[in-house]
Amino acid sequence: DSLLQEKTMDKNPLIEGFSKTKTKKFKVKHPKTKVFRSNDPLLSVFMWGINHTVRELQHINVPVMLMPDDFRSFSKIKINNHAFNKENLPSNFKVKEYCPLVFRNLRDRFGIDDRDFAHSLIKAPRPISPLRGGATYYLSSDRMYVIKTLTTEEVEEMHHFLKQYHPYIVDRHAKTLLPQYLAMYRFTVDNVETYMVVIRNVFSTHLKVHKKYDLKGSTVDREATEKEREKTLPILKDNDFLADGLKICIGEEGKEALVETLSADSEFLANLNIMDYSLLLGIHDLDKAIEEALEEQEEEE
Fold it and tell me: Which 3 state secondary structure label does DSSP give 95?
């Protein structure tokens, strides 16, 4: 004992260093739980469904080519007496994803990573004013995607359309101005079925859109209504575009590429006997953007 005491009392720095025990405190990290919080149970289930279906697809190999059955396939899950996260999710609900491999392939061709896709949609989307018809529209929290409700008839039409749309996107190497359809689902909450399609938002750019035009290439009854004009950012039409005296200058090369794409898209839709389509144009006003930036700077100061 005395020998040990002498050793530990020795002022030799080497021995002193060995005699000290350093303790490091570790902060326990708990895994993050995805909450899927929304005041609307449907949106909570929507977020849960997106997260679940995208994760499930990660375990399925990407096929060399899609088969006809892939355009009729679906995956579905039924949740009963759900106890986890019950503050935000209903205890009973169902999720059905249509043509999962087809839509995964489309997302890939449009340059969308599935993890980014899910990340954008597991935060509560917000409702936006209806664009047309009786559908309900939502915008993802990062403004990347628009979610639109469908009727059962529209779901059937989408199944038929997909069989033509997918090969067209493949042939065009995704060079198109058509809507980019990225996923389609059916959600059952409180025994009510809701069909939804996810579409890329054409105005997801970081640049603010100051004016919008819906152009058909016709001047017959093509003015925005007074009610539309009262909106903060109204969607104007062909005669409004002409009255504003606007010209879009994108250079000769840009013009050729735009006309070629428009021609190909129009021919594709015409071959499917689809009509009543238009070109949605957004304009970013540089002068107005500078004014807004200066105003924001003054407010901060």
Answer: strand
148 belongs to the catalytic site: yes
Beta-strand pair 93-98/181-189: antiparallel
Show pLDDT as tens, one digit a residue, over the chain (301 residues). Answer: 433 333 333 444 433 443 444 444 444 444 455 566 677 889 999 999 999 999 999 888 888 889 999 999 999 999 886 666 566 777 889 999 999 999 999 999 999 999 999 999 999 999 987 666 788 999 999 999 999 999 999 999 999 999 999 999 999 999 999 999 999 999 999 899 999 999 999 887 778 889 999 999 999 999 999 999 998 889 999 999 999 998 888 999 999 999 999 999 999 999 999 888 899 999 988 888 888 888 877 777 6
Residue 287 falls in the annotated catalytic set: no
Which of the residues 1, 69, 190, 276 is marked catalytic? 276
Helices (H), the chain: 2-9, 13-19, 41-57, 100-109, 114-121, 152-171, 226-229, 238-243, 251-271, 286-300
